[in-house]
From TrEMBL:
Keyword field contains Transmembrane: yes
The organism of origin for this protein: Thiomonas arsenitoxydans (strain DSM 22701 / CIP 110005 / 3As)
Stated name of the protein: Methyl-accepting chemotaxis protein
Alphabetic keyword roster: Coiled coil, Membrane, Transmembrane, Transmembrane helix
Residues that span the membrane, as ranges: 89-109
Coiled coil ranges: 30-75
Length: 110
């Protein structure tokens, strides 16, 4: 396996070197001051636009999150009330079961 990689690297190495020789001067060239200022101004405007766009969407997401949290709180309150009702019914059923057990034992002992 390492031999295959070495072969591929050695085959690509001359091309990588020539591409690097052509590409590096492009990255090293400096723009004129006016071009650099124009480019920076354009980038600043793009960033301001992006920030405004993001802020609007963050605000919308915050409103949706607030709505969701409010709905979840309301659902939690409703579930708590339903659970209390079920606990009352379960306690009543347990009490009736205990009364029925006592009556059944009393009937058996007669």
């Amino acid at each position: 396996m390492p031999v295959t990689w070495m072969t591929a690297i050695s085959a690509a190495l001359p091309y990588i070197e020539s591409v690097a020789k052509l590409a590096l001067p492009v990255f090293k060239q400096r723009k004129s001051d006016k071009e650099a200022a124009d480019s920076q101004q354009k980038q600043i405007e793009e960033l301001q636009t992006a920030v405004t766009y993001n802020a609007e969407h963050v605000r919308a997401l915050a409103q949706q999150l607030q709505t969701t949290v409010t709905a979840l709180e309301q659902a939690g309150l409703q579930l708590a009330e339903a659970q209390r009702k079920q606990q009352r019914w379960a306690a009543l059923a347990l009490g009736l079961g205990a009364v029925a057990l006592v009556l059944a034992l009393a009937a058996l002992l007669r």
